[in-house]
Protein: DUF296 domain-containing protein
Amino acid sequence: MRHIHHPGPVSLERTVEVAGVPIRLRFVLEPGHSVDAAIARGFAASGCVGGFVTLMGGRCEPFRFVMPAASPDAHHVAWFSDTFAPEGLVEITRACAIVGQRDGKPFVHCHGIWETTEGMQMGHMLAPETVVAEPMEVSGIGLGRATFKALPDLETNFTLFEPAPVAEDRQEPVGSRVLLAKVRPNEDISLAIEDICSRQGIGRANVYGIGSLNGVRFTDGGRVEAYATEVLIHEGRVESAQGRPRASLQIDVVDMEGQIFSGSLVRGDNPVCVTFELVIEEVNQP
Structure:
């Protein structure tokens, strides 16, 4: 499997997860607010500090985003492109915003696909610089006592989201649990999800999240050769196979040239480039 060398010491802990009680979310992002501020308002009103929301069909103006790019120096293995600033209204086709905290304040990390005047594009939304243009309903899952915290990561030399409890959760899960999880570089994303679920005794789950992969191998034979990509899980599932969790992931991905690819991932041949942030929703057995 492909391997990428980061500048810092390799962490012994390759995956991290924190369990919590899910709170179903559905709220409206109000026009005139930046995307991150609008999402933060919805989370606060729901009593949540971490989780994710899915954005589909909403329109924003102005809209700002970046794509993966080569690093200009040896301090990182990859970096970001210059900022793209499409003219006019931009419609979000599909996006996922992972919600957490940075420096004690709400922070949003969002990857997605959007329709611009130049056609369909994909990347990393700059949520503080992107403004909601019309009411946009979003849905997702929040947690009240666990979140993602943006912390310095010695291995990659980036500041990255790390799952963390913010208070002791005394509630007993009613129905299903939710895991906030992170996968570190050079771990196959499907196998890592399976390992996380196995440790937590989860046999079936829905999987949501965003991250980066070092090249991509699809089950239909398609390939993405770029060593740095931005990825959105389009549909993620874990099912029980022969007594063990087995993950299947359909993703959207953009490479460093702006080319967009979609498909189902090969298990065991899709290593994380920098990080992958996940929300794993347990599905109770029928």
Remarks:
- Residues 128 and 205 are 31 Å apart (CA to CA).
- The chain has a mean pLDDT of 96.
- The radius of gyration is 18 Å.
